[in-house]
Specification:
alpha+beta, eight-stranded mixed β-sheet, three-stranded antiparallel β-sheet
Amino acid sequence: MFDKLEDLLIRYQEIQDELNQSSVVSDQERFRRLMKEQSELGPIAEKYQEYKATKNAIEESLAILDEENDEEMRELAKEELSDCRARLETIEGELKLLLLPKDPNDEKNVIVEIRAGAGGDEAALFAAELFRMYSKYAETNRWKIDMMNLNENGLGGFKEVIFMIEGRGAYSRLKYESGVHRVQRIPVTESGGRIHTSTATVAIMPEAEEVDVKLDLNDCKFDVFRASGNGGQCVNTTDSAVRLTHIPTGIVISCQDEKSQLKNRDKALKVLRSRLYEMELEKAHDAEAAARKSQVGTGDRSEKIRTYNFPQGRVTDHRIKLTTHRIDEVMGGDLNEIIDSLIAADQAAKLTKMNEDTSVSA
């Protein structure tokens, strides 16, 4: 680990030297590339420099204890030694986290698909509440929401909703939300007061750029139709809705939120690229079984990940066995406690695997 850190520190210092050269500043492409590399290496290099400084302080304290006879100086050295050893252990842990492989998709926007599952109208109402929950979470983070497609059930529920969340780090925070979300409560349509269990499926996909996915438009079939919605809206007066069929995979995507057929077509292609990209990611995960095992549920749509129990006021995430009795706050978009815990669990699993790999190679 420390050989790698030395190499990273040398590279970081080389970049700083290069950025001070006038020839680099005039070459905008090279300048941007070096600035990006500097921002990625900076936190690791600075933390490693802190580690080395702390290690030097430990050696100085040990030297004082070996050479100094003054009792007061020895006591100060002992105190400094204890503090530095504790700090060194903390810094080592932080360095290991910084060295964990970065998910290349973490900074991307996300496309979110929420579909009502088992439970009929109650499942559709729950899907609509999940949409509002993520919308409020996005608002808290100052992320932008762009609606792509919405299929309502007439009672205020959503059979399906597809939308994009645009904002830095959106995927890094939301990627753990993919899977089956279960709700337990007395539906408003239930006259007997019985608790029902319903589900909704959430899929979180990183937005795929054209360079991420090779998409042949000859494999795509486009159909146009008149959008459904509330009567009297101008969206219903033209054939602006688009249905995209990807022939090789059979994926079908409908987009009707925009009044422009061209905009709906572009949105459908965005969703298709992200689904195809997600399929490639899943193949890579399957090919690396150990890597997939180290993750905390970041893609399996069939996995029951969370239960929202309204009578008891609790939310339970089954992957990390976390229960919070703050259901109103969670449904209001306060997801940080859950997401932070999922990230910590994922990092801990990856650290364990990294330590095991280091032991094997040693």
